[in-house]
């Protein structure tokens, strides 16, 4: 009987290796999708943070009016950052963008003093920015307020489509990962069915039988998750080296959360599938194992 148990254990080892490889691959795939989902969110935040509004001021403003206006703007709940741009600075910005010399065209600088500002990300919607424009126009020092309405509309529309698509893909892959891991573990446990039944027949309790297999499941799940995490991290590092702009989207806190979820998922699904398989073989009759 001891020889039978040892032989069954030896037959189980290759299955464990294959299950670790299988679980690692599906967790790696889920990690990539999770990283893309994080980047999609960060990309949306990055584009929103670069939407600029401009408040053009009347030319008859005094220094006191300017100070009062800046103080008022700083108290606005939607204000993220702002910069006072006088007409000379505005001319330099215009000439650098349009590659034209204002003085040579019309002989003087027609640009007014202005305030360039960015609003908080949750205000980067056409309706919200329109309300901001109306609010700022009530100030007697502000002549007009402009913002790229079409850009904001298209940006939010495309970001919503991208977020929905990535979320659907993530959900589908997450469900697939659960089933794939479950089937992989069940196949690994299939080779241990005689060992489980033999231990039951000699009087071992359910907990005594399940405990070493559950411990092994936790270890295997952790190993698979750690390998998957390392592979995802190496892929992210390679991608950021190849495309340096991706570094601007890097979010250490979200990556740590993603890696923790991969570890938790690898351990919990592996443990659940193993315990369920043990109970299944304990309930089966000896003849049904063949």
Please provide a written account of the structure.
With 290 residues, the protein is an alpha+beta fold. The chain has two domains: 181 residues, no CATH class; 96 residues, Alpha-Beta Plaits (2-Layer Sandwich), CATH 3.30.70. It has nine helices and four strands; from the N terminus they run H-E-H-E-H-H-E-H-E-H-H-H-H. It has a four-stranded antiparallel beta sheet with strand order 2-3-1-4.
Record keyword descriptors for this entry.
290 residues; alpha+beta; Alpha-Beta Plaits; four-stranded antiparallel sheet; 4 strands
- Which bin fits the share of residues in helices? over 70%
Largest sheet: 4 strands, antiparallel
Share of residues in strands: 5-15%
Q: How many distinct folded domains? A: 2
- How much is the radius of gyration in Å? 31 Å
Total number of β-strand segments? Answer: 4
Strand order of the largest sheet: 2-3-1-4
Q: What is the 3D form?
A: rod-shaped
Label the structural class. alpha+beta
Oligomer: single chain
What is the mean pLDDT?
77
Low-confidence stretches: 1-14
Number of alpha- plus pi-helical segments:
9
Order of helices and strands: HEHEHHEHEHHHH
Gap from first CA to last CA: 18 Å
